[in-house]
Write a structure and sequence with these properties.
With 466 residues, the protein is mostly helical. The chain is 60% helix and 5% strand. The protein has a two-stranded antiparallel ribbon with strand order 1-2.
Amino acid sequence: MSEKLWQGRFEQPTDKIVEGYTASIQFDSRLYRYDIEGSIAHCRMLAECRIISHEEASRIVEGLGEIQREIERGSLVLDASQEDIHMAIEQRLMQKIGETGGKLHTARSRNDQICLDMRLYLRDVLTLTGTQLLDLELALVTLAETHLGTVLPGFTHLQHAQPVLLSHHLMAYYEMFRRDHQRFSECLKRTNVLPLGSAALAGTTFPIDMEKTAALLNFPAVVRNSLDAVSDRDYLLEFLAAAAIAMMHVSRLAEELILWSSSEFKFIDISDAFCTGSSIMPQKKNPDVPELMRGKTGRVYGNLIALLTTTKALPLAYNRDLQEDKEPVFDTADTLFATLRLLTKLLPEIEFHTERMRTMAEAGFTLATELADYLVRKGVPFRRAHHAVGQIVHHCIEGGKALHQCQLDELKGFHKAFDADVFDCLTLESAVDRRQSIGGTATVRVQQAIEEARSELAAKRTRLDG
């Protein structure tokens, strides 16, 4: 067991059970690159502020570089006695360069150090998530463009409601993921703030230059309150909340893919590459990937609730409870990225049964509202028109016929305002293209939405590449 760097206050060694229980190195070791990056910037700032010499700084930076290579080669063994990745790296640095390595921790604490590491980590996660969301948004827009002429039933209460364009349906999900993109972008602004220099809780007595450290690490801002800095996990909660909402959108889409691929709907076939079979029923083709997307959403929700619960009653400033912030964030980041990546690959592989969609769009009296709107255009109050069309639908159900199969004299029996031109509105194309209100399903509006989305995505891509 290696001696703890804080052992001076204690007479007894740490109990091995306590050591295992309190250690975080088994999961925070993935932060090694960020810890070393932050330590190098901190070291260079200390040298520029003449708190340590430039010669000492050079030895420390060189040693940290060697440690990073050792970790990446797998030659540096990490164990629970080292507590966390910060202590492991510092211990190894002192083994390599002696007492000079102990100067690295001047003017900082593990409290602000871990906050820095997590902000650096999350900054990368948010950037990667933005890139993956961009690819997903593009996949949806491309599908919408491909299926601009396809009509399917729109649903409310999972009942046939009105016909809509498949493109319109897909673009609804584009809007959801567009908002997710905005949320992650806003989260990045509040994540991208330097906490290092806040030390344990009250700041430091050394003449450090936090703005210099921020510049070295590409942080556009520095924290405004040291107590808040070491205890703040809002940026992690904001990420978890944004991720939970994004996964909810994924789950909604996954649910529709599951329904649409069923024998009852027969709207789509999901590629074999994204399905599995049954161990007992040879005929089965199960939509396991969308089902797991739906299932993993619950785990991401749980991670948000876990960290909210951990932080809900913590007094200022740092408390060891905050060690529990990492695993929910790591798990959510891994789950979200893998899910978005897989969904982006799955969508272009879907086969849409457009004729089946059209057939079902005509079923269930989806054109009933067209009759009501027709009467309103003839001057009939909407409520009276609604009642008359309701009676017509009941008449058709009793007679086993569709609306367009009614004769004009039948319709006139329910309201005298019906005329021969009524049948012009009883087509899917008419029902779709009359809905030209902003955000409506009319082809011209959906085309406009696709064009706007293309421009938005091109601008986002330019910002990312820049």
